[in-house]
Amino acid sequence: MTTKPSPLASIIMGSASDLSVMEKAAAFLDDMEIPFEMQALSAHRTPDAVEAFAKGAKGRGVKVIIAGAGMAAHLAGVIASMTTLPVIGVPIDASSMNGVDALLSIVQMPPGIPVGTVGINASLNAAILAAQILAGSDRELQKKIEVYKENLKQKIEKANRELSKVSYTHKTN
Asked: How far apart are CA 79 and CA 68, in angstroms?
């Protein structure tokens, strides 16, 4: 029987309804072959479970936490207050304020409790940042990220080649 590796990253979301945003982070970590765990925890509805998670993450081998939440979005900050692991907050558009409430709740942390924060619904960027944090001590992962970023560059170069073929009367390039 093969045992699964310990997770290096955790993806935490305020509720299962956030999966549509957070699945981009999961897909990226999976593509990079980074072992991760994923669960729904609520700073307001399951505070004891959040505390147990945050205080136990390091012991499970977790090196970085991605926490996504909408509305009041206290999840990332609460987790950050209970661990020394890096926490990346993903504000989720889940209210009439289009995610701005979540963004401000995550980014405006008090001194001593930092939460790295990405844009609204930007779980992919959170996963890339998490991978870059992990790659600081993993040369193989560094190479995978370099390939990923080179592919981004190639996509733009290809788009520019295709745009150069588009013709308009007053287009000069």
From this structure: 11
Residue linked to tokens 């995550």: 106
* Per-residue pLDDT tens digits for 88-132: 999 999 989 999 999 999 999 999 999 999 999 999 999 999 999
Pair 35, 90: CB distance under 8 Å: no
Helix (H) or strand (E) holding 116, with range, is strand 116-117
- Domain of 54, CATH number, reads 3.40.50.1970
Q: Are the CB atoms for 123 and 152 separated by under 8 Å? A: no
Query: Within a domain: residue 30?
Result: yes
Number of domains in the chain: 1
pTM confidence score = 0.93
- The answer to whether residue 45 sits within a structural domain is yes
Q: Classify residue 82: in a domain, yes or no.
A: yes
Parent domain of 62? 9-138
In Å, how far are 37, 106, 146 from 78, measured between CA atoms? 19, 10, 33
Distance CA 17, CA 19 (A): 5
Q: Would 88 be classed as within a structural domain?
A: yes
- List pLDDT tens digits, range 51-72: 999 999 999 999 999 999 998 7
